[in-house]
Amino acid sequence: MASSSFTLFLYLLSPFFPFISSSTSTTTTIPLSLFNINPSQDLYSNLTHLASISSARANYIKKSQDSSVSTTPLYPHSYGGYSITLSFGTPPQKIPFIMDTGSNFVWFPCTKKYLCTNCSQSIPTFIPKSSSTARVLGCMNPKCGWIHSKTNPKSRCQDCSGPNCKQICPPYIILYGSGSTGGLALVETLDMSNKKIPNFLVGCSMFSSQQPAGIAGLGRGLASLPSQLGVKGFSYCLVSHKFDDTGKSSNLVLDFKGEKTANLSYTVLQKNPVVAGRNALSVYYYVGLTKITVGGQKVKIPYKYLKSDSNGNGGSIVDLSTTFTYMNRGVFEPVINAFVNQVKGIPRTESIEKITGLRPCFNISRQEKVSLPELKFHFKGGAEMALPLANYFSIAGETDVICLTMITDSAFGPELSTGPSIILGNFQMQNFLVEFDLRNEKFGFRQQVCK
Questions:
Q1: Could you say which of 100, 191, 255, 409 is catalytic?
Q2: Exactly one of 42, 191, 309, 319 is catalytic; which is it?
Q3: I want to staple 60 with a disulfide (CB 3.0 to 4.6 A). Which of 174, 177, 256, 444 is the partner?
Q4: Residues 178-207: b if buried by 16+ CB within 10 A, e if exposed
Q5: How many CB atoms neighbour CB 282 within 10 A?
Q6: Tell me, what's the pLDDT at 180?
Q7: What does the alpha-carbon distance between residue 210 and residue 383 come to, in Å, rounded to a whole number?
C-alpha cells in the first residue's frame, strides 16, 4: 500500500524551484468565519447533531492513544465550526481550513483525485502540479519525524540512508472516532498577507471520510500553524452561533511579538501531562479551572476532576473544535443538580432531553418571566469567566423549551475516566476575545461583541 502511494504521488507532483524569502511583521490577521455544512436543517435538529458530535469529540479526546499525527476533529452534517482561509503554493491557491486548537497538523484536500466519502458538498482541493514550490517531504528530513514521532530515520528510510537518500516520508493516516484522512507530507510556501513562509510542512490528503475541509492545527506540537510560524501567541473572537450561513466573520490574529492584550483576565496555562503511549495529551491547552459556580453558589466537585494526575486523567482543556462543553459525569451531575435546585416553578421536559442528549431542558411556554442562574468558571490566579445566558442555554427548535448546552458521558455504561475531565467548547466562548499567550504561557479572555 505504501509503495503504490509513493508511485501515485510522485506521478502527480512535479519538479520544484527554490523557496521565496520571508518578510518581517509583528502581527498577521486572518478572517475567521463560521463553517456550516448544512444550514438548511432546523435548529432542533442542529442541537441534536451538535450534542452528538460534541460527545463523540470528547469521547475520542479522552480515549485517544498514540498515533502518527495528533487527533483532529470530525465534522458531520450541521456542525457550526470556525474556518480560516490560507493560501499555499506559487502562485497561491486559496484553501479553507477548519480551526482546531486540539491538534498539531495542517493538511488540505489535495490533487484532482481527492476522494471524500460521506461528504455532502464540493470541497476545494490543492493542486501540487500547479505550484512551482511544492515538494514531497523526504524521509530523512527532520520534519518527517514531526509526523512519525515513534520511528527513527533508519526505520523510516529502509531502502536508503545518508544525505543523498531520495526516499520520501511515509504516508500519514489520521484516524478519528468515526472517520479518517490520509496522504503524503509536502513542504510548501504559505503565502500570508504580509509575508511568505517557505518550507512549511503541510499534509496533502488524497482521501478522507466525512471531512468538509482541511484542518489547521493550532495545538502545541511542532507541526502546528503557530509553531511553524514562530508566533508568540494568537487570539480570536468567535462570532455567535446562529446555526446558519450568515457570512459573518471575525479575525484570527497571529502575534509575532507576544505582548499581552489590555483588559484581559489571565490564567496560567498548565503543564501538560507526560504519559507514555498518550502523546495526544501534549498537544492540548490545559487550563487551571479551580471551581464552577451556579447562581453564585460553589458546585461541589471532587478534586480529582480538577487536576490531572500522573496518568493524564483529570484537568481541563480549551478545545475550539468541541462545540458544547464536555464534563465527566462526576462534574456534570453536580452542575445540573445546581441548576435544577435553583430553577423553581419551571417544569423539566424529559422527552426533549432524551431526543437531544441535552439536560436539563425546561418548558418556558407558560412563563411570563424566566430567571436562570448565572454560570461562572473560576480559574487559577483569580480569573473568572461569567457566561452570558445565550452561551449555556439554547432554545430547542421552534418549541418553548430551553436546554443547557453542555454534555457528559452516556447515562449508560461506565464513566470515561481517562483524559481531561472538562473540555471547554466553542459554544461557551461565543463573543469572548480569547488569547493564547505562548511567550508567557497564559490563557486570557474578556467578553465582547465579536464582529
A1: 100
A2: 319
A3: 177
A4: ebbbbbbbbbbbbbbeebbbbbbbbbbbbb
A5: 17
A6: 78
A7: 38
